[in-house]
Structures are given as C-alpha cells and as structure tokens.
Amino acid sequence: MTNSPDSQNYLVDGIPPVDVATPSTEEELCDIVASANNDGLGIIPWGGGTRVALGNTPERPCLVLDMTNLNRVVSHNYADLTASFQAGASSGFVSEVLAQQGQFLPIDPPIPSRATIGGTLAAAVSGPLKWHFGHPRDTVIGMKVVQPDGAITKSGGQVVKNVSGYDMSRLHIGGIGSLGIILEASFKLTPIPMYEKTLIASFGSVEEVVDASMRVFNSYVMPLAMIVFDPRVASHAGLDEGIARHHLAVRLGGRPRTLARQVDEISTILDAAGAFLQRDSEGPSPSVWRPLSDFGWSPEATPILNIRITALPSRICDILRMISRLRDSDLEPAALAEPGFGTVEASWFGPSDTPADPLITMVAKLRKQVSQLGGTAVIQRCPPDVKARVDVWGEDHLGIDVMRRMKRLYDPNGIMNPGRFVGRI
User: Fold this and answer.
1) For 202-253, what is the HEC assignment?
2) Which residue in 24, 29, 82, 412 has the most C-beta neighbors within 10 A?
3) DSSP string, 156-179
4) pTM score, two decimals?
C-alpha cells in the first residue's frame, strides 16, 4: 500500500482517500484487505470510477482499492458459451475478447471503455439489453469474492447448470461492495445475432410513445432492446436535434427471414400507434444505442441530478409527465424509460453551482409523487451538499433489518464502503 500522487483522481463525493492501493495479484489484494480490517480502516472498491457517485457519502475517509490491474481473462469456454473474467477487466475489453468467437455478454453499461466487470455487477448495471436478457444476476453463474477479513469465497462455478446450494453471488450484485469485493465472475454468454436492425419512431406526445412501446411489449416480437426518450435526451445525446418529439428506439436481431418478419410487425404496430416518422438503420447501430446507454453518465453531458425510478409499467406514462413538470428556470429535465421493464432514468441539467435547497425540494416532491404511484426513486448522482442532507436510497427500506444483520455477519468491523449502502450500512 503506497501513497498515490494521483489520489485527487479518486475523490468520492469530494472526499480524498486516506490512501490508494492498486493490487496486481489475488494474494496482494487479500493482504491489503486483511490489513485494513485489522486496523479498522474503511475500504472503497474502485473499478473504472463511472458509478462512484452511487451511494451515500462515506461516513469516514477510506482506503480506495483500485481493481483495474486485476483484469485478465480467467477462462473462455466458447463451445459451452461460458467465460470468466477478473473484476478489473473493462466491459469494452470483455466485448472484444468474446466477439472473436461470435459471442457477447448481454450487459451493456455506460462508458464500456472504463466500466469494469466488478463495478458493473456491484452497481447492478445492465443497460438497454436487459429488456431481452434480464438482470445481470441472471447472467452470472459463478463468483469469487474477497471477504472483509481477506479470505476468498466462491459460489457457483463455470458451467451453466450449477447445483451448489445458495447463490451467494446475488448478495454482491447491486451491493456496491458493502459485503465484500468481487474478484472474479463467471457468465453465461450469448451468440451475436446474425443480423440486426434498429427502428426509431417519433410521436407527438408522451402518451402516444408510451402506448406504442406497450403495444410492442404485448406483441409476439421480443426486441433486443427498447427505449423511450424525450426531445431533451435526443438533443443532449446528439440523436435528433431540432425535432421536438418523443421517440421510441427498438433494436431487433436474428436470422434474415426472422428479422424481416420482426421489422414488418413492429413497423405495423408503430404506424397503428400514430408514429408520424419512422427511420431504420442496419446493424447494431452504435450511433444510437451508445449515446442512449451512456446518457446521464458521459463526462461530456453530466447532469447535476440523476434519479432512477422503478414502478409498474402502467405507471410509466404518469411518471414521465410528472418529471416534465419538475423544473425551474435553471434546471431542465430529460428522461428516458424502458416501459416494459418499469424503469425511468431522469436527469436534470443546470449550473454546477446550483444551490442544494431547490434540488432537495425537487427530490422530496418527486419521491412523494412516485410513492403515490407505487414506485421507488434512487438518487444516482447529485452534489455532495445534497447527499449530506438526503439519503440517496430513500427513507423506507423493505428488509432493512435483515440487511443490517447480514452486514454485521459478513462485515462486523464495518469497513466495506462504510455508510454508503441502503440504510447507511
């Protein structure tokens, strides 16, 4: 463990680390963690830093543990459609490795050149592909984790049909490193579709675009991805500047005849739903899906406030209307949604020196209205002075007593991401 001259690159909510460690081997990592545990020193695991804003403010200065040197391919059994990677491997690197065998990992986090496998799982980020392939926990078949005492535990394995008792990896997916540090993960893979096409339809109102998305959702076609986005997202992402409309992007894939049938059926649905304009593009269309996946996280267009809302699909239209009304002279909202999945990501863009009070008022108003609609709202990005006064996870947590018991059991000294997870555990 050595002092890093670049420690300012590892600020968490403006707080500098006590130290920065960059282990290159499993043994070195375990020794660092065990030493920190013995000294009662808090640890913040760090991957690519793309989601470091997620979570409450650390309750004390901590050691930052940079995992990016632990980035190798552990195994790739392409005939079995499985692979294992160390946690510090970037999503972009993983995609390059798998593409050589015509395969991919259906997890598409923002900024894949930086986002690491471990950080992506710890934050439970899946990206637009979750529409078709589900949550990251549905893709993980095994995991190796460093416990707070420095011991390594394993769950699952490297084959799809694992029967090894409790799936302990689920504790760490979405846990932002509060119970341990993901060291290695094994995944089931998917063949790259033979052909792809993306359809983008524009509508005159949020009601029409959400209705169209639900018609697609209830059809016989299963898109690879589907996102509703408003004109402000289109403008910020550079997708459709100057057209003040609401948009629906649908990504389709398959063999030629299958794809042609899907395109015909979705085009018919969109026409019947009132689309005034349809466009399509061949292939994976990174010029469309990369800006949408990165939206709200790209350094080029960083919102001052980002909130993830989860609700029933039937409530998504109400939530999008509500978000459009939550604005003031300095703050403009932008929202994208996956209606069939029941999620909305809302961002507000404004001056970096926006006072905390109007933001806190806006968050309180949004949470009250979302709660009335049966949903939840998690703040994914906000200024540190807002975090100091607001719990980013919300105030009411189902199962919080169980979560606290788990924290005491797995991390009795409270060193892993102290105070940053749900209930400030």
Assistant:
1) EECCHHHHHHHHHHHHCCCCCCCEEEEECHHHHHHCCCCCCCCCEEEEEEEE
2) 29
3) E-SSSS---SS-THHHHTTSTTSS
4) 0.93
